[in-house]
């Protein structure tokens, strides 16, 4: 019987059941939890059912579309999460993560930022800290540190969540630039109204409805642009700008190497929106593993240099 499984089983059985329940809650379905845990759906369903039988209460409300917590399940899941976090902390302590930098470190950052700035630094870090293994997840969507098991994240913009410790690296801004060849042929725009007479390179990520947004006394002004070509990747848009096709609008760190080398030149700087902070964050644990401290201390001064104009 299911109730005997948990009553007479090991502590590991109980912990497996708790971890499975958390996966179902975090992913939103039994099938998604199955994929995350890499076990059959029947195993996921059985573990949750055995846990509910052991507790003599229903933890999840199941429908054809989603899984939600019951009134009894919500506080139980909070306790399960805390228990599993404390066990993980104890294991990391026992494994020596608090005595020397070692173990796996999961880091996330925006896609282009990670490729341009973090990868070269990571190569140096790994050469110095040989007992640390890195799992890098570069995405343009913000991954949840808790749910995704992220140790460290690089974030651009204000932080809506105060659960994490944050340290400021620098700031970035939106910039308009073009190649010196294009500006020599077409002239340099001096005012936003001048954009109407210029060819622009569109990028789907920054150009809602074919407009570029700039600050104004009323909040923001949508300036129509003439895009002869539009891309869905930032690298392609930058290459087009360097090739002299037209003006491009990207984030400053995207084009800093090209501006420094003279391949691109910034224009309309006085109309740029306010800067956005770049911060490095990590989970707010009382005892921070040395691998986390070592990584932050190593990358911060190097990223600050990379972001400096």
UniProtKB/TrEMBL annotation:
InterPro entries in alphabetical order: LysR-type_TF_proteobact-type (IPR058163), LysR_HTH_N (IPR000847), LysR_subst-bd (IPR005119), WH-like_DNA-bd_sf (IPR036388), WH_DNA-bd_sf (IPR036390)
Keywords, alphabetical: DNA-binding, Transcription, Transcription regulation
Residue ranges occupied by any HTH lysR-type domain in the UniProt entry: 13-70
Family: Belongs to the LysR transcriptional regulatory family.
PANTHER family membership: HTH-TYPE TRANSCRIPTIONAL ACTIVATOR TTDR-RELATED, HTH-TYPE TRANSCRIPTIONAL REGULATOR
Protein name: LysR family transcriptional regulator
């Amino acid at each position: 019987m299911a109730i005997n499984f948990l009553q007479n089983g090991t502590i590991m059985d109980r912990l497996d059941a708790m971890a499975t329940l958390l996966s179902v809650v975090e992913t939103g379905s039994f099938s998604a939890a199955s994929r995350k845990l890499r076990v059959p759906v029947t195993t996921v369903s059985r573990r949750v059912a055995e846990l509910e039988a052991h507790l003599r209460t229903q933890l999840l409300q199941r429908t054809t579309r989603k899984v939600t917590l019951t009134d009894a399940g919500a506080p139980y899941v909070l306790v399960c999460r805390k228990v599993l976090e404390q066990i993980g902390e104890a294991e990391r302590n026992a494994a020596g993560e608090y005595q020397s930098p070692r173990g796996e470190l999961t880091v996330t950052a925006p896609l282009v930022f990670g490729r341009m700035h973090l990868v070269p630094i990571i190569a140096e870090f790994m050469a110095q800290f040989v007992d640390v293994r890195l799992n890098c997840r570069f995405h343009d969507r913000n991954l949840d540190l808790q749910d995704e098991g992220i140790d460290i994240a690089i974030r651009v913009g204000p932080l809506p969540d105060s659960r994490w410790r944050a340290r400021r690296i620098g700031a970035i801004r939106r910039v308009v630039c073009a190649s010196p060849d294009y500006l020599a042929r077409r002239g340099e725009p001096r005012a936003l109204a001048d954009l109407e007479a210029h060819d622009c390179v569109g990028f789907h990520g920054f150009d809602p409805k074919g407009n570029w947004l700039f600050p104004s006394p009323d909040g923001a002004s949508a300036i129509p642009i003439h895009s002869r070509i539009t891309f869905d990747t930032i690298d392609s848009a930058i290459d087009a700008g360097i090739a002299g096709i037209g003006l491009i609008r990207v984030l400053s760190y995207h084009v800093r190497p090209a501006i420094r080398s003279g391949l691109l030149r910034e224009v309309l700087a006085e109309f740029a929106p306010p800067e956005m902070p770049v911060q490095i964050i990590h989970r707010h644990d009382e005892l921070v593993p040395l691998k986390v401290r070592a990584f932050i201390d190593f990358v911060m001064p190097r990223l600050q240099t990379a972001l400096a104009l």
